[in-house]
Amino acid sequence: MTNNAKKPTNLSLQADLLAEAKALDLNLSAELNKALAEIVRRKRAEQWLAENREAIDAYNRHIERDGLWSDGLRMF
Prior knowledge:
Helix content: 55-70%
Radius of gyration: 23 Å
Number of strands: 0
């Protein structure tokens, strides 16, 4: 998300919530950008985890079965 170009869009928001946000002098564009960026970040993380779940599970099974290569070298 390196492109910072803005694009106008139409949204439908709850009237009472919009009125309260305006009364609090919130910058709706900035606040919605932050919230949407966080939602997109979480969704991408969920997708990555789902796409890689099989490999992660296989790796965890391998570690449980064989341990880490450095297990004999650790001093703690």
